[in-house]
Design a protein that fits this description.
With 551 residues, the protein is mostly beta strands. Among the domains are: 83-198, Tachylectin-2, Chain A (5 Propeller); 199-321, no CATH class; 342-420 and 452-512, no CATH class. Helix content is 2%, strand content 52%. The chain is built from two helices and 37 strands. A six-stranded mixed β-sheet has the order 18-17-16-15-30-29, with no helix packed on it. Strand 26 (382-396) and strand 27 form a beta hairpin. It is globular.
Length: 551
């Protein structure tokens, strides 16, 4: 049974057991059968292969693997994820990946005696059953359990290889060690590199060492971007070493260093993207530097650098200051007229290559507010408020110069009560930082934060951004008039579409209908430029579905 309602994505009744389809303008959604266990939430859609969809679910701190049929999106099987022990020690779940149709679960375990932080991989059968054997991926020597560091993951675009990095601080040595390894679909090690960097901060002011990002291109080449900076108080200069480490397969992964000259500005962050024609793109925020060499830290604008990987030459390095109209939307007219810069609360969430060779960068306002813990000892709970508000959309031309800029107005937040609090993917101690990924920990998903954020859709040369919003914001694109999302269970979808000049057309449901399913933008999987596997729910209903952009 199908029922079509224009401009709405919803299920009218919870009695549907077959797929239903709805549309919002030229965006259509179809859903599979209702998932009965409402407490077992999907927190990641792993991928699709061999007529099956693989998803990770979480219930009461227990992870499980759900397998669905691709056609009907019906649940075929579900198995708990129990990684085999390592030397009689329980292994903590880290991640799960589908590599060339082969499923692997990744876990970590700390060895207190040897001071070794191990990472292991366990293959999963087509039926979702974990192997009884582990494969050791990392044995990282660390200073202590509290400084065991983190593992960071980057899957190749073709999903056939996995890049993993471990970083940890050695405070007694004033050093940081990072290990990088590349694995194929069988978790066979193809390349590895280790370096321990000594901090040189005794005579240098405002010293920082920052591993900003890592990338893996279609050739299985590996890239790291590192920013090391300090202030020379005598010369009144900001000294910045901004470089990319290249490990190319054709050169047997021999380290090559590309230095990017930088003066009078400070790099705040950096994202890498392997683009067409064997190029490596770098984008990020930058700040101005005072006459005494001290960085202002506020966001001045967005830069773009292009590295030709054939020659390792830097083809261009362009700084684009935020234009007046964008500043007015973010700061207000009074502050924009005074030339104020933007507060450093925006994270680059998406980096998209356009059909014309240019790029689109989405930068979302993000904050994490940790409340006061209540309770005693290990039973204490801490409220954590995740805030994801407006998105700065920046379109660059192929030469890195500004094409257009605009702002998606939204106001979203969700609070999670956690037994322990941990910011996934970002650590900083003193002058050492890692910025590979900043997001919501998987352990916090399924409780509300995944309703926040947005899904960008770039197809046929046009950008669309889908997110959940308060129904009272219908038709509103003005930052000053937008209302908070409120109860995300009552959210309605909205679609912001951009033309070639960056002008926004907002598309809302004609009317909000009760009991409609709400998409969780934090849990989706892109199968092509126009098709996505999504996860949506409403109170006791949970369903897996597909979202497609139609003409």
């Amino acid at each position: 049974m199908k029922k079509v309602l224009l401009a709405a994505m919803l299920f009218v009744a919870s009695t549907f057991t077959v797929s239903a389809q709805y549309s919002l303008e030229n965006l259509s959604m179809s859903y599979g059968e209702e998932l009965k266990d409402n407490d077992n939430k999907i927190v990641k859609i792993v991928g699709e292969a061999n007529g099956k969809i693989y998803a990770l679910a979480l219930k009461n701190k227990t992870y499980s693997l759900k397998i669905f049929g691709s056609e009907k999106m019906n649940l075929i099987s579900e198995n708990p994820i129990k990684i085999p022990e390592v030397k009689d020690k329980e292994v903590d779940f880290e991640e799960i990946f589908l590599l060339n149709d082969k499923l692997h679960v990744i876990g970590s375990v700390y060895d207190k005696k040897q001071k070794v932080f191990r990472l292991v991989g366990t293959e999963v059968s087509e039926k979702g059953v974990l192997s009884s054997k582990n494969q050791t991926l990392f044995q990282a020597e660390v200073e202590s359990k509290s400084k065991r560091g983190n593992f960071y993951f980057r899957q190749s675009n073709d999903e056939g290889a996995l890049l993993i990095m471990h970083t940890s601080l050695f405070s007694k040595e004033d050093a940081v060690k990072y290990d990088v390894k590349l694995f194929d679909e069988n978790l066979t090690n193809l390349f590895e590199y280790t370096e321990k960097v000594k901090f040189d901060d005794s005579k240098k002011k405002d010293y920082e060492f920052f591993i900003a990002d890592m990338e893996l291109n279609y050739k299985d080449d590996v890239f790291l971007v590192i920013n090391e900076s300090y202030r020379d108080s005598k010369a009144k200069e900001k000294i910045e070493k901004f470089e990319v480490l290249c490990f190319k397969k054709e050169n047997n992964y021999k380290k090559e260093i590309v230095n990017i000259d930088l003066k009078n500005n400070e790099i705040i962050n950096c994202k890498l993207l392997s683009s067409r024609n064997n190029k490596l793109q770098l984008v990020g925020f930058y700040s101005s530097v005072r006459p005494n060499g001290k960085a202002n830290k506020e966001l001045k604008g967005i830069y773009n650098a292009t590295i030709d990987l054939t020659s390792n030459n830097v083809d261009n390095f362009v700084f684009n200051e935020f234009d007046y109209e964008t500043k007015v939307k973010l700061l207000g007219e009074r502050k924009a007229k005074k030339g104020r810069d933007i507060a450093p609360r925006y994270q680059i969430t998406h980096f998209i290559e356009k059909n014309d060779g240019g790029f689109i960068i989405l930068s979302e306002y993000q904050m994490i507010v940790v409340g006061q813990s209540s309770g005693i000892g290990p039973l204490a709970v801490t409220p954590v408020n995740y805030i994801k508000n407006e998105i700065i959309v920046t379109s660059l031309k192929a030469d890195g110069t500004l094409d257009w800029s605009n702002v998606v107005a939204k106001d979203q937040d969700a609070t999670v009560t956690s037994m322990t609090y941990f910011i996934f993917g970002g650590i900083s101690t003193g002058s050492f930082g890692v910025g590979i990924y900043v997001g919501i920990p998987i352990a916090q998903m399924g409780k509300g934060p995944e309703y926040l954020g947005a899904i960008p859709i770039y197809a046929d040369g046009q950008l669309h951004i889908l997110f959940n919003d308060n129904k009272k914001n219908k038709g509103i694109t003005d930052m000053d008039k937008i209302k908070n999302l409120g109860n995300y269970n009552n959210a309605v979808p909205t679609l912001f579409s951009f033309d070639n000049n960056g002008n926004i057309t907002r598309k809302d449901p004609e009317e909000a209908i009760k009991n409609e399913l709400v998409i969780r933008p934090g849990v989706y999987y892109r199968t092509s430029s126009k098709d996505y596997i999504i996860y949506a729910s409403r109170k006791k209903q949970n369903r897996l579905g597909r979202m497609s952009l139609t003409k």
